[in-house]
């Protein structure tokens, strides 16, 4: 297959492979992603086996996302004045130690819930530091003119590797057991650290000024005020919050859902991962074409409708799950619908947020948007953990589906985005006229 190049610069994906140090960073990232994809299935199953309680699955899922809310913003500031390579290597090795402990404790039969809680928080905190370090390392190993192609290549390969890992996870668990699958994740962390160690990069020491808490708080407050007084941005942030909340019951209760409702095992978790990922890839790919043909509020309605169909459909079709083929078909259909429609909503939120936010406030508003969206996951996880104890999975999923349908209908009737588009068009027209004078 011939690789196309940019008409403007003559740069193509083939040129990225000549950026040897950046290719090492990509390789480490892909190895990490592969291990995480396998671990996501195995670890989910371990949590459910150890606790035997759907509520604990939701609690630990929430704890896994907690550092993203509490640590990420400060981790980025801390990483700036440090050697990024060292941070990445240290966090990879720390995660390897934690995951190895979980696998060994599980294999030897002494793994307890409190151990899972501590290791989950430690691993997630390490990831909160590694992410900013990886981002800050990129300009040091990739020439500026290659940014677009380099980052696109990494994103594309990352999705492909994730899909392969999820697809392979069920077979790996069946072949070498749950602990064996987790040990593979340990090996990927160690290998990733080894690759980063070989990256040749000059990191000049940065004399970093002391972190000013008052200045940070003032900037953050101004950003919050901007978001709160812009109803279009506030609405988009609310949609992003809803999408993250809507996925929590499924993400946090996959193992008990698979066992108690579908009557399957780790291979069904893998199947869910595959079809949801494929659906999201298809949704992201078709979004630009759909946006040209239908209104934004209709896309959001389709997202709410898809969420409703997924949660309600999985429970309504429970009587047919005695037949394994019908159960797998149901997983493919409903998982695909969820992935596709959520990808449409997520793409719309991302695009509209950038379009509707003034450039001067984009960084601050973006950090608020990310924090609010991330906060939705642990908060909703803890709520789900409490509700599922009293209702069980089926009523909880039916309730989630009904809320999805209500939200979809609400967005269909709401014209806030239409107003935002109209204001944006007027603003662009005025700027154009001012430029002609």
Backbone shape: globular
Helix percent reads over 70%
Strand content: under 5%
| Helix/strand order, N-terminal first | HHHHHHHHHHHHHHHH
SSE-based structural type: mainly alpha
Explained architecture:
With 437 residues, this protein is mostly helical. Helix 2 (20-51) packs antiparallel against helix 6 (113-141), helix 5 packs across helix 7 (147-197) and helix 7 packs antiparallel against helix 11. The protein has helices at 13-16, 20-51, 54-70, 72-80, 84-108, 113-141, 147-197, 213-228, 231-252, 254-262, 266-293, 296-316, 324-356, 362-391, 393-413, 416-436. The N and C termini lie far apart (50 Å). The protein is built from 16 helices and no strands.
Features:
disordered C terminus, mainly alpha, 16 helices, 437 residues, disordered N terminus
Q: Brief overview, please?
A:
Helices cover 84% and strands 0% of the residues. The protein has helices spanning 13-16, 20-51, 54-70, 72-80, 84-108, 113-141, 147-197, 213-228, 231-252, 254-262, 266-293, 296-316, 324-356, 362-391, 393-413, 416-436.
